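Tokens as discussed.
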């Protein structure tokens, strides 16, 4: 299986574009806004897989320096057009370059990136992010929450570029292997399914009867911190 990030090729937009209509821009922005609470002292934050730059917009509002990386030339062009600093290319290659240039960041974001990677590539990506964090710097990883069976059975597979899911327990272990400490791990309440009150009751009832969650948050979040000592 080819790696999801290729330094010489764009993201396969013919595939990625298929998943775009399933993302609600307003909800995505609200979710990303909630991430800011995990970077209370950040002065510069790296957004790996920055997409159209919604998180970079939020960082700019807060006066935090942001740097976006993305495998899509179109996404990077959109970010640059709005005044952001963003670089097009393979994330692993770009992170290696930042490390060699001795660049350090007080925060890093991997939002809906790891699920596009196989196990080895995801582990390497997390380790590469850890290397460019300064002591006390934080890495936030957000990914589809496969504890919710609707996500596991259907929503996850609506994006044809997804490779495999990553449960929180696995992400926690992978972050620790990269030398990071877990400071928060949760199913993101800002990503609860949008349902009418009646459908919400029905979904909860189905979850209770079956013993399987079908009404919980759609995303999972794990936040790591690089030890200061």
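Sequence:
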């Amino acid at each position: 299986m080819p790696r999801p990030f290729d330094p010489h090729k764009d993201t396969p937009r013919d595939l990625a574009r298929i998943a775009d209509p399933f993302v609600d821009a307003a909800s995505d922005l609200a979710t990303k806004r909630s991430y800011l609470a995990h970077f209370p002292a950040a002065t510069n934050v790296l957004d790996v897989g920055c997409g159209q730059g919604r998180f970079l917009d939020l960082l700019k509002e807060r006066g935090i320096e942001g740097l976006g990386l993305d495998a899509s030339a179109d996404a990077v062009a959109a970010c640059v057009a709005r005044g952001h600093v963003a670089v097009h290319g393979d994330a692993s290659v770009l992170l290696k370059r930042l490390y060699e240039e001795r660049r350090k960041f007080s925060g890093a974001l991997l939002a809906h990136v790891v699920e596009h990677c196989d196990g080895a590539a995801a582990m390497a990506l997390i380790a590469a992010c850890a290397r460019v964090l300064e002591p006390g710097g934080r890495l936030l990883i957000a990914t589809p929450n496969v504890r919710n069976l609707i996500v596991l059975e259907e929503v996850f597979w609506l994006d044809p570029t997804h490779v495999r899911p990553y449960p929180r327990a696995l992400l926690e272990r992978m972050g620790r292997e990269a030398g990071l400490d877990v400071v928060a791990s949760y199913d993101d309440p800002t990503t609860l399914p949008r349902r009418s009150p009646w459908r919400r009751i029905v979904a909860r009832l189905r979850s209770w009867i079956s013993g399987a969650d079908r009404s919980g948050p759609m995303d999972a979040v794990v936040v790591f911190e690089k030890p200061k000592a």
